Amino acid sequence: MGFVQRLYKRLPSVSSALAAEEWKNEKPKTPSRLSFFRRRIRLKGNSSISIPLGFLLLFPSVVVFTILILVLKHPNSPGRILVPAGTPPSIRKISEKHDRVFATGCQDVLAAAEQPRANAAFVVLARNKELDGVIQSIKSIERHFNRWFHYPYVFLNDGEFEQGFKDTVTNYTSSTVEFGKIDPSMWGYPDWVDHEVAREGIRKQGDAAIMYGGMESYHHMCRFYSGFFYKHELLDKYEWYWRLEPEIKYFCDITYDPFVEMARANKTYGFTIAVKELKETVPNIFRYASAYKRKNNIKSQGLWEMFIEPQPEKQATSSDKRLKTLPNEILQTEPGHQNIEDIDGEAMEGEKYNMCHFWSNFEIARLDWFRSKEYNDFFDMMDRSGGFWMERWGDAPIHSLAAGALLAPRDIHYFRDIGYRHTTIQHCPANAPTRQLPRIPWLEKTTEDEKERKEEDEYWATPDTPKENGVGCRCRCDTDIRDVEGKEGSCFAEWVEVAGGYASP
Question: Which residues form the active site (predicted)?
């Protein structure tokens, strides 16, 4: 039996025989077209890890494609305008219902400079110690505008200007320059206020760490710019003014005359930045501004709404129709009974100040508006309230609330095309596509070092890349801070609302 079993095991099985027969009859397979890409490649010569060759070839292509999509989609990419329709532009156009940009992109500045000038001047409030900041500002405005238009400067000071200050300033411009001293009646404490009480109010603001609140000179400056600068004798002969501050920068070439365009469009006041005021500096300013408006029965022309909090729509309910609680019954009820509404201590006539104002360190305006009876009545009421001493009222909210009460959106111009920076706040527009012209070099003569002069000029030879809906001319913006249009604390949205909304998505 053992011999038979061993012999049986050595015989091939039926299945093995069939498999062998099939193997003999099988035709050789044709290699797959993708077999090349399925070949595995070792990461290193002696590595046990391998990856398909197809993945190795495909991965770089995916990376390049992804980067290309991100670049085209990025809002700052010049190639973004090539993306098919459906993606909204990063810069939105504002309705031209009440206002429009005077010049989109660059104009023929030499032709514009040959046209008649407006009766206008730059106004600079400065002290001798601010000479370096004044030089910075003059160099900037001369480079970007006044080297072509040559508008005069009026410098004002509550003290005497030193001769060195005058000589240096005059050397930095080819325009006429006048220097004036501010009369004590326009600077300092008025006769009708208790000086010691006013000083104590300022000291308390300093103790409370209110920004500039403890600086007596700052209070004087705000009051002067609110109600007196336009009364100075050196400004009597002018119809327009452009305020210039020390240590400011302009970023774009202004190749048209803003004064002429303001007059042509029948504008009264122009701004380039609108932001919110610090609440602790003006806790009661709106109370008095609203009282002036109510006392004189002034109806809003559409601009006042820029400076008030939006009113939420209230749905009427059946409970609102019930009879009012009688006085004796009110005394006996608990707080909140019958939904008696709380009184907002900051609201006036149901309106509440949203802290917005035009940033007045840049403004171009008609002087006859400031000289008008309506504006001066407004200022006198605000002045008599004591807010310039007991609080830290600035000229910016004074100008803005006066404009809100007395003017309409059609009277205001937003200089969206002018790039401007003061301290850490800037507005700088994108350049307008297809509307840029060759730059005219300007080697500033007061810089003695020839290399430095050329470097200063060459910096402006490479403006920013134009973008869709851009309006600027040869702008080169600072990149260390965000534009105020998209920054928290900006009042750009409030301006757009009263100006008619957006014209594009």
Answer: 363
**Is 50 exceeded by the pLDDT of residue 331?**
no
Gap between the Cα atoms of 144 and 312, Å rounded: 45
Query: Which helix H or strand E contains 324, and what residues bound it?
Result: none
Instruction: Tell me: pLDDT of 433 over 70.
Output: yes
List, in order of start, the domains of the chain with CATH numbers: 109-310+348-499 (3.90.550.10)
Structure token digits, residue 121: 């001047």
Residue 427's Cα: distance from chain center in Å?
Answer: 4
Tell me the sheet residues that pair with 275: 357, 490
Separation CA 100–CA 357 (nearest Å): 20
8-state DSSP, 220: H
Residue 254 has pLDDT above 90, yes or no: yes
Q: How many other C-beta atoms are found inside a 10 Å radius of the C-beta of residue 447?
A: 15
299 — phi, psi (to 5°)? -95, 140
- 363 is an active site residue: yes
Q: What is the pLDDT of residue 2?
A: 53
The CA distance from 210 to 201, in Å, is 12
> Which residue type occupies 20?
A
Please give the share of the chain, as a percent, with pLDDT higher than 90.
70
CA 358/CA 355 separation, integer angstroms: 10
Q: Which two tokens stand for residue 10?
A: 């050595």
Q: Which structure tokens are listed for 363?
A: 């403004």
- d(Cα 275, Cα 457) in Å, to the nearest integer? 32
| Count of CA atoms in the C-beta half-sphere (13 A) of 391 | 22
Give yes or no for a contact between 59 and 373, defined as CB atoms under 8 angstroms apart. Answer: no
Identify the DSSP state of 94.
B
Q: What is the pLDDT of residue 194?
A: 96
Q: Which amino acid is at 327?
A: P
CA distances 348 to 286, 333, 342, 353, 430, Å, are 8, 27, 14, 9, 40
* 56 to 31, 39, 41: CA distances (angstroms): 21, 11, 9
Burial class (CB in 10 A: 0-12, 13-18, 19+), 318: exposed
Q: Which of 261, 363, 391, 485 is catalytic?
A: 363
Three-class secondary structure of residue 486 per DSSP: helix
Are 154 and 196 in contact, with CB atoms under 8 Å apart? no
Distance CA 369, CA 228 (A): 13
